[in-house]
Each structure stands twice: as C-alpha cells, then as structure tokens.
C-alpha cells in the first residue's frame, strides 16, 4: 500500500479520508518512501507495528516518535 500511495499523484486526498492508519513493518519508516507517505497523513491516530524495533543504522527514534 505504501508503494501505491507513493506513486499516486494525489495520495493526499485518499489519506484525508482516514482518521487512523496502521503501519505494519514500521521499522522501514525511515526509508524515504515510507517517510513521505506517512508525513502526508493528518488523521488523529497513527500506529506502527514491528517485530524489529532495533535498526542497524540507529534510526530507532524515527520509529518511536512523530510530531
């Protein structure tokens, strides 16, 4: 789904329809594609799920926080 939203020209209008998004494999969220899509989400709830909370590149803070 992330790849599809990344390729859509107007993914913002689709994301605006949701108040909650659940991101599986959220340890990938520091990847540019994930980051760009998730940054567009303006809903109330954003949950991330992962079985790999520690990253080799040290980007764990990106997984655990969002302004």
Short description:
The protein is of the alpha+beta class and 67 residues long. The protein has four helices and two strands.
Write the layout of secondary structure elements.
Blueprint: H1 2-7, H2 11-15, E1 20-24, H3 32-40, E2 45-49, H4 60-64
Parallel strand pairs: 1-2
Model description:
This protein is an alpha+beta fold. The protein has one domain (7-64). 37% of the residues lie in helices and 15% in strands. It contains 4 helices and 2 strands; from the N terminus they run ααβαβα. The protein has a two-stranded parallel ribbon with strand order 1-2. It is globular. The relative contact order is 0.22.
Keywords:
67 residues, alpha+beta, 37% helix, nucleotide-binding, ATP binding, hydrolase, helicase activity, SOS response
Query: What ranges have pLDDT less than 50 throughout 5 or more consecutive residues?
Result: none
SS content category: alpha+beta
Cross-sheet strand order for the largest sheet:
1-2
Name the average pLDDT: 76
Distance between the termini: 23 Å
How large is the count of helical segments?
A: 4
Helix content estimate: 25-40%
Q: Rg from C-alpha positions?
A: 12 Å
What does the overall shape look like?
A: globular
């Amino acid at each position: 789904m992330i790849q599809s939203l990344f390729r859509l020209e107007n993914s913002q209008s689709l994301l605006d329809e949701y108040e909650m998004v659940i991101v599986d494999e959220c340890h990938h969220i520091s990847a540019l594609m994930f980051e760009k899509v998730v940054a567009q989400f303006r809903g109330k709830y954003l949950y991330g799920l992962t079985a790999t909370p520690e990253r080799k590149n040290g980007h764990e803070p990106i997984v655990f926080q969002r302004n």
